[in-house]
Amino acid sequence: MVSDSLNPYEIDEEESLDYTFITKDGIKYHASFYSVEPLYPEFVDTYSFSIEPEDKRSHPMNRRIAITIAEILKRLIVISDFVLLNASNDTQRSRNGIMDILFV
Length: 104
Fold this sequence. Notes:
Helices cover 25% and strands 24% of the residues. It has helices spanning 63-79, 92-95, 98-102, and strands at 11-15, 18-22, 28-35, 47-53. It is globular and about 40 Å long.
């Protein structure tokens, strides 16, 4: 049996390209892909990725968050012709290591 710590959290697709999941600590995260075409018309079918917790207070990080984010990115790449060029998060202070964990 595989440890839960190696599996992603349960992911709900709220709408197309909009996902949520809840951590073991009860923190709900929103992960969304947004088209950048309205701002940059030359970038057709290009998306920005955002991942944010509902609760902005400091909270514990765990490897399953990174595994869940990787699963969301994998779903997008597998079901589409999209290519992931770069990923970053807006709140580097509290989640600086997430992308490092994803791409280790």
